[in-house]
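We modelled the chain as a single entity of 316 amino acids. Its sequence is:
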Amino acid sequence: MNGKRVTTLFLTVSVSILLIFSVKCRYDIADKSQKESNLLKIVTTTTMLTDLVYQLCGDSVELTGLMGAGVDPHLYKPTEGDVFKIYYADIIFYNGLRLEGRLDDLFAKMKLRGINTIAVADALSANDLISLDNTNTNFDPHIWFSINNWKSIAWFVSQVIIESDKKNEYYYLQRLHNYLQQLDSLDKYNREKLSDIPLSRRVLITAHDAFGYFGKEWDIEVIGLQGINTVSEIGARDVRRLADFIVKRQIPAIFTETSVSDRNIRALREAVRSRDFEVTADGTLFSDALGAPGSIEGTYIGMYRHNVTTIWQALK
């Protein structure tokens, strides 16, 4: 009996030592590989920021995006793998304005460690932002839906990267110039398409209130079933009120979103039908995340162009 206890104790201690050794080896190996790489290591949160850094840097940096296609940044929880990636970053870019609320504590710790942790919203002034309570302290975080904002953020991000990698300054500035030209072309396309929508139909109804900057930039009234944050809930009274509004205004279409459940939009469509009016809900918009990598919608410009085309086709 005593022999069995000794054997069990020996195995338990041995396994514990192996686990500790394996974890230590994991970090030691990673630390060695990180030191051997000469590339600037950049971690981004949202897919929009991951695409932006790639457009500005190409393969000249080691880029890691935490969130994938269709991921809601409002609800995203950091994993052990995220912590591991962030720990070895030279620069961390995140949206800010509480978009990635569950990552805020982690970013604060990284700042204390001396890692260059940057909220891209810092590129913008209060005049560029949409205030949620008229106090200039609480702002809509969906800043990428203003192309003017995105240009400012592109310039800001580029400057931060250049400060850490001056030897490639000319290369980064050249890519920035090319990207800004692409954004100008996107702006022109959007203007041409959205100007076709009649004044009476310039109402965008979506799953949650992510398109405020889009509406402000293109003079379109925006209504989200949920609020700014997808954590908020919507009640039956809200659905009934919005259904009455759609019927009264004769709005032809409402839109689902790729990163938000379509349950509330389906409920709204049924409420409208019960009032003897038909509204389509066939158009799906990208809001808080881009499309799959490698797809047209997997880039910021492709995503924005898809959204504009979808809205134009449904409301014109």
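As a brief sanity check on the tokenised model: Residues 37-189 form a domain with the Rossmann fold fold (CATH 3.40.50.1980). The CA atoms of residues 114 and 262 lie 42 Å apart.
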